[in-house]
Amino acid sequence: MISTINTRLEALADSPTAEILQRFFKTGPGEYGEGDRFRGIRVPVLRKLCREFRYVEVEVISELLDSPWHEDRMLALFLLIERYRASGESAREELYDFYCSRTDRINNWDLVDVSCPYIVGHHLQARDRSLLYRFVELPSLWERRIAIVSTFHFIRNDDFTDTLLLAERLLADPEELLHKATGWMLREVGKRDQPQLEAFLDKHATVMPHTMLRYSIERLPEGKRKGWLKRW
């Protein structure tokens, strides 16, 4: 099966698109995606391919995650999400553990964002969430991003506590990609409960990274946005 999938991926490759994606995802020396390789396959095409191979075994998903190609790993995560959705509780536990054991291969912001709310966030909705607090302290930028973006699932269920607590821990994070992700999650809180967002901002707006603040207030009325920016 893996050889069949690889053949399909190779046939879908597009060099001009790959060059664009290499630049967009910062794959140069010293950049956050250093060394990542792209085939040049767009996400809608990968989603369509996922529907075709949605019943593959976890061993195939694991092989795709081991690939040096970004799109192969993206396809692996789409397949893992589909398998998680279709599984019972005991199998979901195994798939969640598998995901958490392979975070070294979930190593760019888009790979994190398309997957962690649907596996980590979903799985922890009614479970102990201490893993998120361990991840947010780890050296890996991507594991810290998994910690905050996984809470998107909680936010969709009007559960904001962990988002706000994790956001506090990320106020001093040096990575702009974490500032953007945290501001995004805070914005999602504000779309559902503006007073909760403003209470957080009242405590932290003067010390938040500017990017985090700017992202968090994007959906507020213009007058409110200007007011918070003046306080930075």
TrEMBL record:
InterPro entries documented for this protein: ARM-type_fold (IPR016024), DNA_alkylation (IPR014825)
Transmembrane segments: none
Gene3D superfamilies, alphabetized: 1.25.10.90
Coiled-coil regions listed: none
One Pfam family matching this protein: DNA_alkylation
PANTHER family, sorted: ARMADILLO-TYPE FOLD (PTHR34070), DNA ALKYLATION REPAIR PROTEIN (PTHR34070:SF1)
Protein name per the record: DNA alkylation repair protein
Organism: Chlorobaculum parvum
